[in-house]
Amino acid sequence: MRVAIIGRTEILLKTAKLLISKGYSIPLIVTTKEAPEYSESANFFRDFADEINAVYIYSSKLDSHCHDIESLDVIDIAISLNYSSIISQKIIDIFPMGVLNAHGGDLPKYRGNACQAWAIINGEDRIGLCIHSMIGGEVDSGNIIDREYLNIDVTTKITSVYQWFDGLIPIMFLRSVQKLKKDKNYVLERQSKDSVDALRCYPRISGDGRIDWNKSNIEILRLINASNKPYSGAFCFYKDKKIIIWDAKLLNDNELYLAQAGQISNINSDGSIVVITGNGKLAINKVEYRDFFGKPSKIIKSIRSRLV
């Protein structure tokens, strides 16, 4: 069975290597410029294509390469992950079994971008991961072939979500290709086309990680966790310099108090600090400030200090 690879990320490259190890042929690899948080660049895809003698295309405009792809011997199916553009039906129709996409959202809810971050921010209790058939020009629609869930809570960082993806997506792609090889009409679930069942998520940018200390401690903690690595982190300012908060936890010490949001209320012996929010407190355990990375008590020494 011949499988094309379309997209980016180290997870997709790992998937391609898994398929090769299971006897599948990969005659085509399409990629484009990597995002800043990716650990493997387009060069890794180019080198892998050279290694397995696959045709390599570097382009964000796949339609312009339609003839190049059609000129190849028939490729049964394509798998796609984090390609930078929406794939057209013209491209999907080249592959007899279509194009599969891995999507980190509980489809048909959480379609679009940054779905895992939005799910954490929104206080969901689980994150879905789906392999689905793509429909050209549409966002995360098409029949679902495979699905798994990760239970989450207010302590879950997006870092651990991506670790879960890293281990599971290649396996789910392999399972899906195997299911369709056995039965080309296999469907786990047909996605609802009713708009009330869908929740569209739009992209997040680094500035969206700005902390508003007037919000509740739970809201702020969710933002810290949703903005965590591999992203640029939730941040505020201390002495007019950006301070990134990488690790925090809810704190309930039953103290009655009057304070401004952002006030440092305690500097703990373990190196953490306690910050007043609009509703409750947060213990801050790890920060990045200028060239420093570590316990915040190394840079914040007084309860007269404030984060803004």
Task: Summarize the helices and strands and which ones pair or pack.
Elements: E1 2-7, H1 10-21, E2 25-31, H2 42-52, E3 55-58, H3 66-70, E4 77-81, H4 89-92, E5 99-103, E6 111-112, H5 115-121, E7 126-133, E8 144-151, H6 158-182, E9 200-201, H7 217-226, E10 234-238, E11 241-251, E12 264-267, E13 273-276, E14 281-289, E15 292-294
Parallel strand pairs: 1-2, 1-4, 2-3, 4-5, 6-9
Antiparallel strand pairs: 5-7, 7-8, 10-11, 11-14, 12-13, 13-14, 14-15
Helix pairs in contact: 1-6, 5-7
Please explain how this structure is put together.
The chain has about 300 residues and is of the alpha/beta class. Helix content is about 25%, strand content about 25%. It has seven helices and 15 strands. The protein has helices spanning about 10-20, 40-50, 65-70, 90, 115-120, 160-180, 215-225, and strands at about 1-5, 25-30, 55-60, 75-80, 100-105, 110, 125-135, 145-150, 200, 235-240, 240-250, 265, 275, 280-290, 290-295. The strands form three sheets. It has a seven-stranded mixed beta sheet with strand order 3-2-1-4-5-7-8. Strands 10, 11, 12, 13, 14 and 15 form a six-stranded antiparallel beta sheet that branches. A hairpin with a 2-residue loop joins β14 and β15. α1 (about 10-20) runs parallel beside α6 and α5 (about 115-120) runs antiparallel to α7 (about 215-225). The radius of gyration is 23 Å and the shape is elongated. The chain starts with a strand and ends in a 14-residue tail after the last strand. About 40% of the residues are buried. The model has no long low-confidence stretch (mean pLDDT about 95).
